[in-house]
Design brief:
The complex is a heterodimer of chains A (291) and B (616). With 291 residues, chain A is mainly alpha-helical. Chain A has helices at 13-16, 22-47, 79-115, 117-132, 135-146, 150-161, 163-177, 180-187, 192-228, 240-246, 256-283. The two termini of chain A are 31 Å apart. Among the domains of chain B are: 265-344, no CATH class; 360-447 and 526-534 and 544-611, P-loop containing nucleotide triphosphate hydrolases (Rossmann fold), CATH 3.40.50.300; 455-525, no CATH class. Classes of the chains: A mainly alpha (291), B alpha/beta (616).
């Protein structure tokens, strides 16, 4: 037996240098971003150095300084303070949309996939109809006509957003339905609702949560877009999408005023998506190992 | 190492593997998968590597052609092919090796071929990328046809078809032709016949053997089935928990295995010719190689284990010409092993079948089932099948895939509704479960239950074993206070330790999962169990355990079986009467001994003829 003459030396340099662990760097960063936003949302008021509404009219459109870390906007309000104060709106609205989507998609998707037949047909035609609706456009019209407001936007998005989830979970349930454990439960007399919402739901839970995370990110972007158009939060309320719109004029005097809310939206949405993906990878097929 | 005794001039070794070690490496965790395996193949020789799942047989082969999955590495040893150490080659050199010098065909003919490539395309692709003399398009096409003819596909139109248009056996042939397109000196066949029907299986093995002879190439056959190994190989390597336990020429091993594990493997294979008094089952399952370091890997499951077996890993020693064993105690136990072999091979008294009475327990009359989209294809899943069962009787349904045997079982438990025909179970009309009253349905569920083939998806992976059993008891109105005690009873019935109630399916082996699935059906105290290939996904040694369990449960509870299988040996061991199904019709029926010993229908004869037999 020769000593450690192995197949490894010629393996790619990237792998050996630990490059394959890169995804975990993204993962840690994503958790850190989500943690930061959640922290800002809960304890934001305790770490604020400025009142987000306080106007320093002598110091408007100022670039970043020691006093104002991200500078000030056109009304002299501290950008940093407004980013922190915007965190709750970046979490609650999307969360409501995601949870509504999760519940609707789970119940309708599994029902549709498991029952099949007429029930499936009706639900799928309904979903087709929902898909045909241009969601954001309708939100713009409704919110515009009724007169705006954050919670109205959240409500409209919640109702318009779950169709995709229903389709995904229908497909997943169809796949589970044909597996012996479901058929065994059927022949053993386990009631339908238990098969659907206990057995199948638990087995497709990774998909449910991954799709909810995706919904969350999409809702965050959609809500920010509505605010950007002036249809979400009312003027004066700190919200990232609205800040993006308000501070556009500052692009040449205090770029941080535009970049900060924009980056906040992009990073937070990306982080949530990555974590959703991770949940799926981490928990799907668990329990099926040992094959 | 060994040279076959019959070879006068020592043939040059084609491939020599020495001390191969394969490990799973992820960060700081290392798991041994193959632990120092050595073997060799001469030109024109066929060897078989035999082992159960987890023995490391496939990984050893994949290490040789540098096709290990990510995270799995060959960390020690040498693999010499044509004078070069394969393990030292760069990835590019390794790729050039594959196809040209060494080639491999895989188990699953359904995923081995690229679905968007025509059959000839698979072969042309290899032909045109070869180093020697590039072929033009036209020549490649001609050559591909010639290559397909070599593997028995004479029909030139087959070359232009897509894989999905071909049967499993045909696909395996195309796969073989593609593997041979580079004219390799060594072919590795990884369970090439396992996924195929019995009759096709025999054809593919025959083809492999003839191609190997005609080309004079080396062949490594990887299989879990000793009978398959004996029918093809010159030399057999028995692998257990990542290490070799016995090496022998095929004839010697078949006559007298010299390691308790080989003996167990050989004997747990049910006999086809007669019903055995009791099947020899090797208790437990294959351990992880790391758990049995520094001791005989088989010690925990060996009935002859002695203290010296646990103190060090026994070396592989030559005890007779061409016979190597890793059993330290072989000289002491050799005579005892012979006794065991004779005992197990003793036939039980022939089974008496009382025949069917006027009012059988289950009557299936003229059952037809046509699946949507199948009507145009012409052949329905079931085309008028009539079967009857007495209370407590064990009846076999034998047939190949597509014979409709599974559909029949599924109709019986209401998972499929027949297109026409009648099913009566214990006086209840069970043709269409959806029209039954709630009470009748509940009564049927307590009468007939089903055990499925795949032990890995038959249990809800998110539920503990205890919870799964409790759920069944509860929904069937079992007294609340007694549920826990009943779960323990059920686990005991199927021979599982009580502690298993807290485990999840992932922590169980395939055989254990199948036991849980059986316990789950016993929870409703059925009178008839539909068993749909319940042991075909299990390792042989475990298969015998489960078959014994079926026999015990029948004695204990008077349980009747509708045993659906493609395996004639299994049928012989557990049923009284048998129906042979072919293309949705019963072609022959009768007492199992009569049907298997004196088949009347040509199809039954063909089935019996295709059971693998030794080359001798």
């Amino acid at each position: 037996m020769s000593a450690i003459a192995s197949a490894t030396p010629r393996r790619s340099i990237l792998r050996r240098s630990g490059f394959h662990r890169m995804p975990s760097v993204f993962l840690i960063a994503s958790w850190a971003i989500i943690g930061t936003v959640v922290f800002m949302a809960i304890f934001g008021s305790l770490i604020q150095t400025h009142d987000p509404a306080e106007q320093d009219l002598l110091n408007t459109s100022a670039p970043p300084s020691a006093e104002h870390l991200l500078g000030t906007d056109a009304l002299g309000r501290d950008i940093m303070a407004r980013i922190i104060a915007g965190a709750p709106a970046a979490i609650t609205g999307p969360l409501v949309v995601a949870v509504t989507g999760l519940l609707m998609a789970s119940s309708l998707g599994i029902l549709s996939g498991y029952m099949g037949g007429t029930i499936d047909m009706v639900i799928q035609r309904f979903v087709d109809f929902m898909f045909a609706l241009p969601g954001l456009l309708i939100a713009i019209v409704i919110v515009g006509v009724v007169g705006g407001g954050y919670w109205l936007a959240v409500l409209v998005l919640s109702l318009l957003n779950f169709a995709g989830g229903v389709r995904i979970l229908r497909g997943a349930s169809l796949e589970q339905r044909a597996l012996p454990y479901v058929e065994a439960a059927r022949t053993l007399g386990v009631p339908r609702h238990r098969i659907m919402y206990s057995h199948i739901w638990r087995n497709i839970a990774p998909i449910v949560f991954a799709s909810a995370a995706l919904d969350f990110a999409l809702a965050l972007v959609a809500l920010s877009s509505l605010s950007y158009l002036g249809l979400g939060t009312s003027p004066g309320v700190p919200e990232w999408g609205r800040m993006l719109a308000e501070n556009q004029a500052l692009l040449f005097t205090n770029p941080a005023g535009v970049l900060a809310p924009g980056l906040a939206i992009v990073l937070f949405a990306t982080a949530v998506t990555i974590i959703g993906d991770w949940i799926y990878d981490r928990f799907s097929f668990s329990g099926r190992t040992g094959r | 190492m060994v040279e076959p005794v019959a070879d006068p001039p020592p043939a040059p070794q084609l491939l020599a593997v020495d001390g191969l070690r394969v490990e799973y490496v992820a960060g700081a965790t290392r798991r041994t998968l193959v632990d120092g395996v050595s073997f060799h193949v001469d030109r024109g020789e066929t060897i078989a590597i035999v082992g159960e799942s987890g023995s490391g047989k496939t990984l050893s082969a994949r290490a040789m052609i540098r096709l290990l999955p990510t995270g799995v590495e060959a960390t020690a040893g040498e693999v010499f092919l044509a004078g070069r150490d394969v393990l030292q080659l760069s990835a590019r050199e390794g790729a050039r090796l594959r196809g040209n010098r060494i080639s491999m065909i895989f188990q699953d003919p359904f995923t081995m071929l690229n679905p968007v490539l025509r059959c000839a395309g698979h072969i042309e692709e290899v032909l045109r990328t070869r180093d020697t003399g590039r072929l033009g398009k036209k020549e490649a096409k001609q050559e591909a046809l010639r290559r397909l003819a070599e593997v028995g596909i004479d029909d030139p139109t087959a070359a232009g078809r897509y894989p999905f248009q071909l049967s499993g056996g045909m696909r395996q042939r195309v796969g073989l032709a593609a593997a041979l397109a580079g004219d390799p000196e060594l072919l590795i066949a990884d369970e090439p016949s396992t996924a195929l029907d019995v009759t096709t299986q025999a054809e593919i093995l025959e083809l492999l053997k003839s191609v190997q002879r005609a080309r004079g190439m080396g062949l490594i056959l990887i299989t879990h089935d000793l009978r398959v190994a004996f029918s093809v190989a010159d030399r057999v390597y028995v692998l257990y928990a990542g290490a070799l336990v016995e090496v022998s020429h095929a004839a010697g091993l078949e006559q007298e295995p010299l390691h308790p594990y080989s003996l167990g493997l050989l004997l747990s294979e049910p006999a086809t010719e007669f019903r055995q008094h009791k099947l020899l089952a090797v208790d437990g399952s294959v351990p992880a190689p790391d758990d049995v370091q520094g001791q005989c890997s088989f010690a925990a499951r060996c009935r002859w284990v002695a203290p010296e077996c646990l103190s060090a890993r026994p070396p592989l020693l030559e005890i007779a010409p061409g016979r190597f064993t890793a059993c330290r105690r072989i000289e002491d136990i050799r005579s005892e092993m012979v006794v065991v072999r004779n005992e197990v091979r003793a036939p039980a008294a022939t089974v008496a079948s009382p025949g069917v009475s006027e009012t059988p327990f289950v009557t299936i009359t003229d059952l037809r089932k046509v699946f949507a989209g199948q009507s145009r294809a012409g052949v329905p899943a079931l085309a008028g099948v009539s079967v009857s069962l007495e209370m407590g009787e064990s009846v076999g349904i034998v047939g190949e895939s597509g014979s409709g045997k599974t559909t029949l079982g599924r109709c019986l438990v209401g998972l499929e509704t027949p297109t026409s025909g009648g099913i009566t179970i214990d006086g209840i009309d069970a043709a269409d479960y959806s029209t039954l009253s709630r009470d009748d349905r509940a009564r049927l569920r307590r009468t007939v239950q089903i055990v499925f083939q795949d032990p890995y998806s038959t249990l809800d992976a998110t539920q503990t074993i205890g919870a799964a059993l409790q759920e069944v008891l509860r929904v069937n109105g079992y007294e609340r206070g007694r549920v826990k005690a009943r779960v323990d009873e059920l686990l005991e019935c199927v021979g599982l330790p009580l502690g298993y109630g807290k485990r999840r399916p992932a922590a169980l082996s395939g055989g254990e999962r199948q036991r849980v699935a059986i316990a789950r059906t016993l929870a409703v105290e059925p009178k008839l169990l539909v068993c749909d290939e319940p042991v075909s996904a299990l390792d042989v040694s475990v298969q015998a355990q489960i078959l014994n369990l079926f026999r015990e449960l029948r004695e204990q509870f008077g349980l009747g079986y509708l045993f659906i299988t493609h395996d004639l040996a299994v049928v012989r061991q557990v049923v009284d009467r048998v129906y042979v199904l072919h293309q949705g019709k019963v072609v022959e029926e009768g007492p199992v001994d009569r049907v298997l010993d004196r088949p009347e229908h040509p199809y039954t004869e063909r089935l019996i003829a295709s059971i693998p037999r030794s080359a001798a």
